[in-house]
Amino acid sequence: MTTEMICAGFGGQGVLTIGKFIAQAAMQEGKNVSWLPSYGPEMRGGTANVSTVVSTEPIASPIVSFPDVLVALNQPSIDKFAPSIRPKGLLIYNTNMCPHGCKRDDITKIAVPMNDIASEIGSMIVLNMLATGIIIGKTGIIKYETLEKNLTSFMQEKNPDLLAKNLTAIKRGIEIAKQYT
Q1: Which of 5, 143, 144, 166 fits 69 for a cystine, CB–CB 3.0-4.6 Å?
Q2: What angle do CA 147, 150, 156 make, to 5 degrees?
Q3: Neighbour count for residue 72 (Cβ, 10 Å)
Q4: Where is the Pyruvate/ketoisovalerate oxidoreductase catalytic domain (predicted)?
């Protein structure tokens, strides 16, 4: 099993963090991983993307040219990366920031108003964990429990209130993904 994924959006939306937490959890579950971030010179507001590969086999290259999964948090990310999604691949995108969506009909699309849901949860900062929940709920690439443990150890002392909101966002994402099975 090998899953190649690209997460893309504006700097500051947490796309690199999505790939990082998935890679860390997969590694703890004994899988092979690669994590290759890329961002423009402007951290906040510039474009950012990360290529993450999770595999039960050795990984030949961290470069993802034809992703199985694309997470697009803004329209420029769909415009740039959606044409390269493998047929029968998966596109998860934020409808609040992707007004034109994607016209492909040979892929599965999960279109979610992520800004609205993050607002309901109480913080726009949890948008990336909402997307992470959708990824794991749809693909099973990692276990929720592994992600929860990592996130808890990372945030427990730093910001326990945000930790609770992030865990809520992940669970909400998993619930959303289940509607697309």
Answers
A1: 5
A2: 120
A3: 28
A4: 11-175
